[in-house]
Every structure is written in structure tokens, then in C-alpha cells.
Design brief:
The chain has 3 helices and 9 strands. It is of the alpha+beta class. The N and C termini lie far apart (155 Å).
Length: 213
């Protein structure tokens, strides 16, 4: 090879070297295990920080009424209340001779009878009735006799006097109070205030009749 040929070969190599380096850089691939990190811009960093530190946003909600005001109904006459109505204090029923002195409430709710110093005052079988548990002292009505005095001290201060006219054994059928023969007491001693309490079970009861003076 002549000196001119050698020079051309050398120049060709030198001229092609930058091209090869450029190609190598273009084809280079970062290692697979190397994570690619991105640096957030100032605006992105501000949004992210605000989202992480700002308290949750609350909005006013409309108030929901869970209960409505209830009217108190005077049940001293009818002795009946609608479900959900508050009980109505009527007064205190007293029979001094047998040590009965109990608060009366104008409804026939079970809780009223179950509570201590609390008797139900309501209408049943044509009579105004006072009912309470025998184990809370009301079994003493069985010891009353014709002529035994009793008093209803009403909440307004008025005192109504009564006297016993009869004491019988009877039944509670859920629908009515009856005598021992299961005859309802509607026609028995009309106009009297009835006291009753359970005996050995709720179906068998003692009934006392009190006539107002």
C-alpha cells in the first residue's frame, strides 16, 4: 500500500469515530434495576404538601330532628294514653288501715306497674282502676273489708274519700277483669273505684271495690 492509501485509511477511521460514539450514546439503555427518579416542580410540591397537611374540609349539614315535642294528656278521667305519650301523675292512693300509700300514673304501661311506688290508673271493664304488683305491697287490698276507708290525694291538692264495699277473687283475661265465674265486672258495683293485684299468677287476681263518699 502506498503512503497515500495509508493516509486515506487513517482519515476514514478518524472521521467515522464521532459517528460511532454518537450511535453508542443513542443506543445506550439504562440498567433495568436503576429507578428513574422525577423531581417535582415547585407547583407540584406545593400542591402535594397542602394535600398532606391541610385538615379535611367540613360542610354545614342540615339539623335532623330525631324526636318531636310530645303533648302531655290529662288522663285522670279516661285513664288512657296513646303510645309514646308521657305518663301523667294523678295523685297518691292511700288505704291507711292496710298500709297502702302509692303514687298513681294515668296509663296502663307495664313499666308503670313495675316501678317502685308506682301504680297504673286507667279504665278497665267499666271502672276506674288502680293496679299494682302484689309483691310491692298491693296484696294488702285482700285484707280490706266493707267500710275500710281510702283516699285519693290528687295532684291539685284535692282529697277524695272512699270506702270499701266488696273484695272478691277474680280473673284477668287481658280483655277484662271478671269474677271467679269469668263474668266481667262491668255491672258489678257501678261507679266504684277498683283496686286489683295478681295472686299466684297474673290470670288470678284479687279485686277490691271502693265507693266514693
Amino acid at each position: 500500500m502506498s503512503a497515500r492509501g495509508v493516509m486515506a485509511s487513517v482519515l476514514g477511521f478518524v472521521l467515522s469515530l464521532p459517528v460511532l460514539l454518537a450511535l453508542k450514546g443513542a443506543l445506550a439503555v439504562p440498567p433495568r434495576d436503576t429507578p428513574v427518579q422525577t423531581v417535582p416542580t415547585t407547583a407540584q410540591a406545593t400542591v402535594q404538601t397542602t394535600a398532606e397537611t391541610a385538615p379535611p374540609q367540613t360542610f354545614p349539614t342540615e339539623e335532623i330532628l330525631t324526636s318531636l315535642p310530645q303533648e302531655t294528656v290529662d288522663t285522670r278521667i279516661t285513664g288512657q294514653t296513646m303510645p309514646g305519650e308521657p305518663t301523667d301523675f294523678v295523685g297518691r292512693w292511700k288505704i291507711p288501715a292496710v298500709n297502702i300509700d302509692v303514687a298513681c300514673y294515668g296509663n296502663n304501661a307495664q313499666v308503670t306497674v313495675d316501678n317502685v311506688d308506682s301504680a297504673a290508673y286507667y279504665v278497665n271493664s267499666g271502672h276506674q282502676v288502680i293496679a299494682d304488683h302484689n309483691y310491692q305491697g298491693f296484696s294488702a287490698i285482700g285484707s280490706c273489708k266493707p267500710g275500710t276507708l281510702a283516699y285519693l290525694e290528687k295532684r291539685d291538692g284535692q282529697v277524695v274519700s272512699y270506702y270499701c264495699v266488696a273484695v272478691i277473687k277474680g280473673h284477668n283475661t287481658e280483655d277484662a277483669l271478671t269474677d271467679e265465674s269469668y263474668v266481667p265486672i262491668d255491672k258489678l258495683h257501678p261507679g266504684t273505684l277498683v283496686n286489683y293485684t295478681c295472686n299466684e299468677n297474673w290470670q288470678n287476681v284479687t279485686i277490691a271495690f271502693f265507693q266514693p263518699e
